[in-house]
Every structure is written in C-alpha cells, then in structure tokens.
Design goal:
With about 280 residues, the chain is α/β, with parallel strands linked by helices. It is built from seven helices and twelve strands. The strands form three sheets. Strands 3, 4, 5, 6, 7, 10, 11 and 12 form an eight-stranded mixed beta sheet that branches. Strands 1-2 form a two-stranded antiparallel sheet. The protein is rod-shaped. One of its GO terms (cellular component) is protein-DNA complex.
Length: about 280
C-alpha cells in the first residue's frame, strides 16, 4: 500500500502534484493518473521478470550453444533437440554447432560455446584445460570395417589387427584424434598402416571399404548405414571411444545446463552400449 508520506515524498522529488482533495477524499491529478498507468506497467513487468527468474532457477528456460562432433550431432543430440522442441521438456533455446572435439574445447575455453559433446579413445586420452570439466555419457566399441568374408552365418568375427598388416588402409585425415587412434592401434599390433585413402567422413570410408579400396577402423556411432559387402569385425585388443559432455566448471551448477545434461545422458544411452562407471 502506498502511504500519504510516500506520495508526498514523490511529489517533492518530481516537483509536481499527484493528488488533490475532492470532498472528503483524495483523487489523482492528471499527472498522478498518467504516472499510475506507468506504475501498473512496471508492476506487470516486475511480475513477468519474477516468473522468468523462477524459470531460470528451475532450468526450464535459457539460451545455450552446444558443440558436438558429427556422429553425436546426427544421433542423440538431434534426439535431444527433438525432445526440447516437442514441448514435453524444458523450453530451452538450444543452438547446435558441429565441431570436432579440439575445436569444441577451444570454443568452451574462449566462452563461445556453453556445452561440448567430445570424445576420447582408450588409446588416445584427452586432457581438459584448467577451468573446464566433463561428465561421461558412455562408450562405444571401435570396429574394423572390412570386405565381407561371405560366411553368411550372422556371427560377429573377432580378429587380430596383425592379420591386416599388409592390407591397404583407409584413414581419417591426419589432423583428427581418430587418425591417432588408428595409428596407435596398428602400432600396438606391430605395423605401420599403408594408407591409400583419407577422409574425415566415416560414411565415405565405409563406401571405400565396399569398393575394395582397403579396411578402416570405425566407431560404432559413425555407422549410420552399412554398405553391402562390408562387415564389422571385433578387435581382440578392444579400442573404445568414450563420449563426454564438457563445460566450464562453474557452469555445471547452472540449472539449464544441468537439465540439458540430463536429457543428453538419457538420449545417449541407447547409442552407447558401454555405460560409464558410477561416480
């Protein structure tokens, strides 16, 4: 309730009368009536601001940018966007950018992105700079894609990489972590791969395998379609790709980011058969 003293103080500050006596009561002057309209607007805006603040505290609204490598963006990140846009989940405004992990981590460190879906390999660990943290979403196997042997029994063969020491290889481009993974896996098997083709697109690699160009190491998530004449072989010395959600360390306390992290963990689960260890 506005008191007479408050009105008097406001009149003194503004240098204009806001009220006047009428009979036994007090009514607004023209200036007072005009100011009252603004007062209602201010109260309405304050109420709206309070509602928005409450939604921000609950993590149900907010604008965020997410960087994700292509195979993650195509699968569970796209499913996360579908859930958000369906109206069943929080009304978050999510901008998605596809980027390889090194670029995504740089964007996090520079403040150009809020979240990053990144990966590391069991033979190529990834360290994050100070101020950044990550949470595991799960892991997947890396398979050898090779021309099908035509066994036709539906079984998954397990092979030694050494058996492919003299085979031609299809590799990712040398600037990618995936290339280092392939080199180290082959090196552990005792040979240096003879690379005859390079592509950062795993779909292209698989088509080249189908064409008989060579063999390739492919993470499970990258196989959207298996071309005819190609089989995926398990490695006797397994290589795994682990998927993580990274952010600046303080941002993992942000309610909106926590909501996004929860949805991403849920949508990633069917795609990543090897679950992270409990903390």
């Amino acid at each position: 309730m506005v008191t007479i003293h408050a009105v008097t103080a406001l009149e003194k500050e503004l240098g204009i009368r806001l009220t006047q006596r009428q009979g036994r009561g007090v009514v607004l002057t023209a200036a007072g009536a005009a100011l009252a309209v603004h007062g209602h607007d201010i109260l309405d805006r304050l109420s709206l601001a309070e509602l928005e603040l409450e939604a921000l505290r609950a993590g149900t609204v907010g604008r965020y940018t997410l960087n994700a490598f292509p195979s993650a963006a195509r699968t569970f990140v796209a499913e996360t966007c579908r859930r958000i846009r369906s109206g069943d989940g929080p009304a978050l405004d999510l901008r998605v950018i596809t980027a390889e992990p090194d670029a995504a981590v740089e964007a996090l460190a520079s403040g150009n992105t809020d979240l990053a879906v990144i990966h590391s390999y069991s033979n190529v660990p990834r360290d994050l700079a100070g101020g950044l943290s990550s949470r595991p979403l799960g892991s997947e196997p890396v398979w050898l894609a090779a021309p099908a042997a035509g066994l036709g029994d539906g079984s998954t063969r397990t092979i030694e990489l050494t058996d492919f020491a003299t085979t031609s290889w299809i590799a990712p481009t040398a600037d990618l972590t995936c290339f280092t993974m392939m080199e180290r896996a082959c090196g552990l098997a005792g040979f240096r791969p003879r690379i005859v083709a390079e592509s950062m697109d795993f779909a292209v690699q698989l088509e080249l395998v189908a064409a008989g160009v060579g063999v390739a190491l492919v993470p499970a998530l990258t196989v959207a379609h298996l071309p005819a004449g190609v089989e995926l072989l398990e490695l006797t010395v397994p290589v795994r790709r682990s998927i993580h959600l990274a952010a600046r360390t303080p941002d993992f306390n942000d309610p909106g980011i926590l909501n996004l992290a929860s949805i991403l963990a849920d949508t990633a689960c069917p795609h990543l058969p090897i679950r992270p260890l409990a903390a």
